[in-house]
Amino acid sequence: MKSSELFETAKTLMPGGVSSPVRAIRPYPFYTAHASGSHLTTVDGPVFIDCCMAYGPLILGHAHPHIRKAIEAQLENGWLYGTPSPLEPAFAKMITGDHAGMDMVRFVSSGSEATMAAIRLARGFTGKKDIVKIEGGFHGAHDAVLVKAGSGATTMGVPDSAGVLADLVAHTRQVPYNDVEALESLLMLHTDVAALIIEPVLGNIGPILPEDNYLQSIREITRAHDVLLIFDEVITGYRLGIGGAQAMYGIKPDLTTLGKIIGGGLPIGAFGGRREIMELVAPQGPVYQAGTFSGNPLSLTAGITTLQWLHDHRTLYRDLDEKTRALEESLDRADNGSFVRLGSMFKWFFCSEPPKNYREVKECDTGSFGRFWKRMLDDGIFLPPSQFETNFLSSAHSDKDLTTIARAYTQCLSE
Ligand SMILES: *Cc1c(COP(=O)(O)O)cnc(C)c1O
Fold first, then answer.
1. 6: buried, middle or exposed (CB in 10 Å: 19+, 13-18, 0-12)?
2. Can you tell me whether residue 125 is helix, strand or coil?
3. What angle do CA 259, 264, 270 make, to 5 degrees?
4. Strands 255-259 and 47-50
5. Buried b (16+ CB within 10 A) or exposed e, 263-296
């Protein structure tokens, strides 16, 4: 069946025809038949160079042979035990060893689950009620973080989804990214804040990069106010390098959430942090958290193998950085937008200056982006279908891919 027909059927059986909203491309999304390296092959025939990479997890590309072999070997031993397996302490050792801010870790099955548990843990540890998030920051699809952006620092949060209780998100306050003063005045005014949860580099409306010393400043301010600092590194973990944003910027958060890359393409999440905080997690402590698929051997095998590969191929991050740098240099940035990149994360924003926060990114010309996105697809490049999603490269993107991508960018932007 063709993509258009599959989507017609899917729409009658699944809300919006999809399993996650961003995938509902109009008039219909292409359906993927198989994926390999940097390429997606559609059921309709066309093959695309993928710059979405499943929204972040696939840093080694699709169906990496080494990861595949490891998964196949694990299949021989079964794929779900409901008991501990030797993979857990091995993986925990790798992850805590790589992150300055993680003495202990708990494995879960998604990034959403990780941030949900980290927020509960922060409340359990501090005994305080409120959390602060960054406007436009994304931490998954659970109630506490589905708060309308732009409601202002001193007001209470307003639900961003039907079915989320106003009473509940009243405990979620927001401040703009890259605004130290807004955070400081909020914490002066409100003393019942358990934690600040932040993507150290905004990835879900970005990349939007931290200004000089911003992350250092929020570390100092949160510490001074006895507020836990949660780095949501679900995207940035092992994306910006080993040790994520906390290593890149030299910051030690109290709690860290991970996901995406650490599952090697299989479902996963993790949260961890300072020992005295993590010791409150059940069964060691009173903060409850549990999951049937937590620490499942298949995800852990894919994750361990991926992280080991990243450790063994240290030039990979430099190579990826060189590739986005070369892409940037090939573009004429004078005309209708700005190119932002950090390592293998990049984006063309249809606004004259690189945005510094949510308000600025909302000023971007989404109409132009839509036309550009479509033109890129016609040229064989699949970008995430939103002005507000980061593009990713993987180690599977060849120099030839990059030449094709650069040529398409130049061509499509000039039209
Ligand atoms: C993707 C993402 C999440 C949610 O992870 P899921 O695995 O999709 O639940 C949370 N935080 C950030 C920063 C993310 O990018």
1. middle
2. helix
3. 25
4. unpaired
5. bbbbbbbbbbbbeebbeebeeeeebebeeebbbb
pLDDT number for residue 150: 61
In angstroms, how far apart are the furthest CA atoms of the chain? 60
Residues 210 and 185: their CA atoms lie apart, in Å, by 19
Ligand 1 contact via 239 beta carbon (within 6 Å): no
Could you give all domains of the chain from N- to C-terminal order, each with its CATH number?
A: 31-63+314-414 (3.90.1150.10), 66-311 (3.40.640.10)
Where helices occur in 14-143 by DSSP H, the ranges are 65-76, 87-98, 111-126
Q: Which amino acid is at 223?
A: R
Nearest atom within ligand 1 for CA of residue 267: 7
From the CA of 55, give the closest atom in ligand 1: 1
Q: Which atom of ligand 1 is nearest to the CA of 110?
A: 7
What is the C-alpha to C-alpha distance for residues 168 and 300, in angstroms, rounded to an integer?
34
309 lines ligand 1 (CB under 6 A): no
CA–CA separation, 295 and 84 (whole Å): 8
Those residues of the chain that have pLDDT short of 70 are 150-155, 333-335
pLDDT at residue 288, as a whole number: 98
Three-state DSSP at 252 gives: coil
Which tokens go with 287? Answer: 């903060």
Q: Ligand 1, closest atom to CA 137?
A: 13
115 lines ligand 1 (CB under 6 A): yes
Ligand 1 geometric centre to CA of 108 (Å): 12
**What is the rounded distance in angstroms from the CA atom of residue 306 to the CA atom of residue 153?**
40
Look at residue 414 in the predicted model and tell me its pLDDT: 86
For the Cβ of 389 lying below 6 angstroms from any atom of ligand 1, the answer is: no
- What is the whole-number distance in angstroms between the Cα of residue 407 and the centre of ligand 1? 31
pLDDT of residue 206: 86
